[in-house]
Amino acid sequence: MACDDVGDGALAPAGMCMNAEDGAILGAVDVAAVTSDAATACYLGGATEDASYVACTSEALIDETGLTAGCVDCFVQSALCAKNNCLVECLSDPAACETCREENACTSSFYECSGLPTGEPTPDVIQGDTASDAGPTDAVVVTDTATDVVDA
C-alpha cells in the first residue's frame, strides 16, 4: 500500500486537516502522542496486517481526539508507512528512523495529506497564519523501544 493510500486504493486528498474543527483539536490535543499510543496498542494487540492496523488505529484516533476521518487518515497512513518501511530502523535508532521516513516519503506524504506546514501545528498555523513561530515536528515516527511500535 502506498504511504498516501487511504486503504481502498484511493489516494488521500491534500489539506485534510485544514479546517476549523481539526485546527482547534490539533491546537489543544497532542495528536502525535495519541497516535503513538493507539498505533502501539493496535500493533501489540495483534493488528499487524495493514487493514486491521489501519482500522484499529483510525477508530481509536477518532474516538480519542474527535478529529475528522480525513485528518485521521493522514496520521494513520503516515504511521502505516513507517511501520511498513522503517520498522527495524525505528525500533533501534531514532535518527535512522527519521532518515528512513524521509527516504520513504512517510513524512512528506503526511504533510501533503494534512495540509499542515512542516512545524508544530498551532491554532494560528491551522487558521493560515504562517508567521507563527512553530517548531519542527515529526508527525509520525517510530520510537526506539521494542514496546513502542509507532509513535505519531
Molecular structure report:
The chain has 152 residues and is mainly α. Helices cover 57% and strands 0% of the residues. The chain is built from 7 helices and no strands. Helix 4 packs antiparallel against helix 6. The longest helix has 24 residues, at 69-92.
The helix-and-strand class reads mainly alpha
Tell me roughly what share of residues is in helical segments.
Answer: 55-70%
Write down how many β-strands occur, each being a DSSP E stretch of 2 or more residues.
0
Rg, rounded, reads 14 Å
Keywords:
single chain, 152 residues, disordered C terminus, 0% strand, mainly alpha, disordered N terminus, globular
Q: Helices and strands in order, then pairings?
A:
Elements: H1 20-28, H2 31-44, H3 50-65, H4 69-92, H5 94-103, H6 106-114, H7 123-126
Helix pairs in contact: 2-3, 3-4, 4-5, 4-6
Provide a compact summary of the structure:
57% of the residues lie in helices and 0% in strands. The chain has helices at residues 20-28, 31-44, 50-65, 69-92, 94-103, 106-114, 123-126. The chain is globular.
